[in-house]
Predict the 3D structure of the following.
Amino acid sequence: MYLTCNFSKIKPKMEIFNTLHSLLFDKRKVYKYKSLRALNGEHDLYLLVRSITRSRLGKLLEFYYDDLILTKTINPETESLRTNYVRITVGPIFVHFFEISPLEGFIGILARSSISNKLLNAIESVVRRESQISSTIFGRVLFDIFLKEKEIRKIQDFLDVVEIIVENVADPYIDWAWVKGSMLDQSSEYYKFVEGPTKGRLKVLAIRFQNRVYYLYNDGRIFTRQADISNIPNIIHEIQLFSEIVKRLHKINAVRIIN
């Protein structure tokens, strides 16, 4: 099945680490992270840590969070639309907190970016409510696939490039390009869009790893269509595969943190 892992990093402050451990890692808990006033009154939104599972790389947490959605219903008497806000719960969302070098302090969120960002905001809100910390606690993780493209292709496990997306192509007739193929980095099209005079900015680089295709995004995401998350052991296995890719990128300095 399709699976995306979004990477972030906990800021290297002992106060933040201690607070996260005391709030999230001790036991299953429910926290109110926000109160919102809408058309139909005030809504309290909650964050739930439902389960905590140890892995050889750290801890896997199962999260749920509340969100508000706008609904519309037809009012037959006035022949108009009635708007309302409804509280819904999103989850399960599995998040792995890495505790082993070189990824110590990294977190991997198995969800698309919109959900990942909302969950991070909910966790930060809980930390601010429950402690004296007022600053942001997560830094963004970026993959420098544009600057480190040659080094990435030299990694022994990443030899086969099968797909690329390139933006800002230096061609008056082409804005961006999406190219697929086998051993793509050996082709003239790869040279044209990635290395030649009309090259653009590499946004996505898809490589073969462990008999799968993984898509490396420059915004800190990794995606595959071949995952199995049918149970907790399989989820942990998928996290380990994602982490092996990031470890290899980290080794060639292709992982950048923005605080």
Q: What stands out?
A: Helices lie at 14-25, 113-130, 149-154, 188-195, 232-251. The chain has a mean pLDDT of 90. Residues 3-140 form one domain. The chain has two domains: 3-140, 142-258.
